[in-house]
Amino acid sequence: MSAKTIFLNAVGMCLVASGKAPSPTITVPFSITPAPTHPPFPVGNTPTLPSQFSDIPASVVSCWDAHANYTSARQFLIKEINRSATFSWSQWTTTSLAITLTGDLFINCYTTVSPSLTTLCDGYPRASTARTSCSTYIRTHFLTATHTGSNIYVAPSWSTELDQLPSPTCIVASDFGPDCTKLADAYEWRVTQLQSQTPSPTGSIERPSCRVRFAPTPSAKPACFLAGGSWEAYYWPTPHAFCSGNGTSNATATAVPTPTIPGQANTAVISGLTLTSPSVYHFLRNATLSTYVGRESNVGETPSDGTLSFASSTTAAFLTVAQRESDILTISRKCLGHNKGTHCTMHASPRFLIADLETVRASEYFGSREPHEAETIYQNEYAATVGLAMSDIVKQNSVFGECVWTTPGERTETAGPAAWMGGRMTKGDWHGITATSVVGRSVETAVPGMRVWVG
């Protein structure tokens, strides 16, 4: 059992009047005089487009200009309201006493392992799962302060025009469509036209609110990745002792099934495929291949400012991969930085053993992290992410040979072989094949948990 204390802070405030409370109606001092009105609205920067852009529909240009004029008018009103508004201090005839109540919230949590801890030959305490219960209590404090007045913000009467300003309802152009591509060129022309004027006019050119796609540089093979779908695996169970005879963790041993018939490999037919011992077989259904089609960005941005764009090209109904247990890939993700500066690396490495789903090795549970002294291993918290090397998928299924494999996502790279990444593995994803030796009997189709004949 372990305990953890978490400290939080909560604040509440209560106002208590000393004498008569301040009146909710406050008279504005006569010295404050907001501007009676604002100057005329400026016109948005919408230079008339030359004939080279005559293929852009007039309705598209009209919608673009309407959004430009709305943006210009809104920015103008905000600026004028801020310039005309006034602030003043209003002295109260009576004072007010503020009582602030603060509460320190303490949370004590206790972790109980279930069942009780067991220490195996690797020296780490282990439990199947853990249950956490918490209790709370609050310690309060009182602070007081006296207030004698308040600030008054006075906006001009015409400030309501900001909320009443009609906003265009039209959509300039669809993302990645031909009209948006033409508008991108027209936007660059208007920017150049504005910058060439002397003296330079105020304001800027409104960007069309649609996105464009920059086509990739032609190459012999497109960049691709495979994702999604459902996965399951079949294997030949064998006795697997966690601890070897010398009392240490059997950290790397991969058990090899013993042939039922001496000199012959065990086989089973599943989903019309013959599975041969000792290979592990992965079944991948309905995975989708996506191909790189360029970079997407807002109008006026460079390709480097945009995001990678992939388009789904085909769905593979059924793929299989056969491999030895020692070649099974698991994928871990490590990220550095935060927000837009985050860079992630997907590590694909062959370090998984099927037996880890029953009793995980400490090296697999902690990974690259250095464990604390006598840190407990909770079996239910272990979950590995399965990966299938794209080189195996391509070679064994004769598909997708035209691709150069990549990892989707900005600022993401792959360490190790490029791989299809599945979800978190559970024991239910792995189907053990059991076999009975009967000489002369043919191989029969197997389902998870079903006994099959070998011959």
Briefly summarize what is shown:
This protein is mainly beta and about 450 residues long. Helix content is about 15%, strand content about 40%.
Explain what the structure shows:
- With 455 residues, this protein is mainly β.
- The protein has two domains: 113 residues, no CATH class; 238 residues, no CATH class.
- Helix content is 14%, strand content 40%.
- The protein is built from five helices and 22 strands.
- The strands form six sheets. Strands 6, 7, 8, 11, 12, 17 and 20 form a seven-stranded mixed beta sheet that branches. A five-stranded mixed beta sheet has the order 18-14-13-16-19. Strands 1-2-5 form a three-stranded antiparallel beta sheet, with helices on one face.
- Strand 9 and strand 10 form a beta hairpin.
- The chain is flat, with a radius of gyration of 35 Å.
- The two termini are 54 Å apart.
Oligomer: single chain
N-to-C SSE series? Answer: EHEEEEHHEEEEEEEEEHEEHEEEEEE
| Low-pLDDT segments, ≥5 res | 3-31, 250-255, 436-455
Structural class of the helices, strands and pairings?
A: mainly beta
**What is the distance, rounded to the nearest whole angstrom, between the alpha carbons of the first and last residues?**
54 Å
The radius of gyration is 35 Å
Indicate the percent of residues in helices: 10-25%
* Global geometry: flat
Mean pLDDT value = 79
Strand residue percentage: 35-45%
Number of domains: 2
The largest β sheet comes out as:
7 strands, mixed
Q: Count of DSSP helices?
A: 5
Number of strands: 22
